[in-house]
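lol forgot to send this yesterday, sorry. struct tokens for the thing we talked abt
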């Protein structure tokens, strides 16, 4: 085994998220979760979660 983490980028829809989760990838990122944001916006975003 390569012992690597798999990151899927560019995910935009719930259907894509569901499909990728079934593949057991480690991380998912894309517009489905958030548009690209600056560091200060990111800190505010995560402090609300």
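and heres what i got for the seq, position by position
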């Amino acid at each position: 085994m390569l012992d690597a983490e798999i990151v899927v980028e560019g995910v935009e829809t719930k259907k894509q998220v569901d499909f990728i989760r079934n593949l057991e990838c480690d991380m998912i990122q894309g517009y489905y979760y958030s548009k690209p944001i600056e560091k200060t916006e990111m800190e505010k975003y995560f402090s609300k979660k």
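The helical segments are 14-22, 39-48. anyway ping me if u want another try
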